[in-house]
């Protein structure tokens, strides 16, 4: 590119030099030369009149368009042509001919003014060529850069497309894997659920049976203690100490109230008690032996600062944990665990077979989740690649 410009520049310079050599009147351009034929009548270029050749450039304006005085300042509308070899030719108004100011770089406008003009055409031409070269170079670099960008974008698009293709294939295979692992997981979870449900059901049945047995034991114990005369029957009078069973809110249990509790009978045997009396009174009922134990005696302290009352009072102390011995009977004096204590019991660990099924299902779940995670990661990556590809396509 640079070489081409240089060659063209040189060629122009050479042409310019030659143009100066072509004989023609002063101030006439090369293209107008043919209108000024030496020693032949001259016709003004607007065709308005024809004059003898010696009136061309005779410093007197003859043509209305000023064309007979291309090399003098005689016509106010005349134009002087500078050839400016080495630079570019130009016209200046005739009024600037010999006005003492250098207008043409080849100095030809000041041929008779005494002004000392320097020919600066070559220098100006050189500068202009340099400017042009610089611009050409910048344009070339710009074009190369643009091509580079285009190429990079094309490569980027291709890479993204290839990547997308790869990801799509990988996704397909992972999806197949996920489907298979889901089926395996579901197959493993079915027996797991059945075994776990069976385990839970057995435990609940056991717990219910235990609760019922405890309830029965507790009512038996209560009956034995209430039957103060040991005749195997509970009478209304044997209940009277139990003011906590008061139903009308006067703080004591009357004969009538006691009898109502026994369902109107004067006495009940143990099975009637368990069946119809105990369910009514069990929430309120307190045994003397149910009182909570005394707190441990602190060292060096004689007294029991907060010893709970020995006798039954208004306190609700159904769930005492331990107590002092006051009876030499069997363990009936010890309150059995309450229903809620039984219910709070934790389910026993799974048996080996159930645990093996749980472990197998857990392993299948983990494998499935792992594969699913891979699938989600591939989807995320694909979304990113598609976004970048779209950006490249929009550039
Ligand atoms: Ca003239
Ligand atoms: Ca001048
Ligand atoms: Ca009795
Ligand atoms: Ca009462």
Automatic annotation (TrEMBL):
Disordered, as annotated region: 169-354
Biased composition regions of type Basic and acidic residues, renumbered to the chain: 181-220
GO-annotated cellular components: glucosidase II complex
UniProtKB keywords: Calcium, Coiled coil, Disulfide bond, Metal-binding, Signal
Domain EF-hand: 214-249
Name by which UniProt lists this protein: EF-hand domain-containing protein
UniProt-listed GO biological process terms: liver development; N-glycan processing
Annotated organism of origin: Engystomops pustulosus (Tungara frog)
A GO MF label: calcium ion binding
Pfam families attached to this UniProt entry: EF-hand_5 (PF13202), PRKCSH-like (PF12999)
Signal sequence annotation: 1-19
Record-linked SUPFAM superfamilies: EF-hand
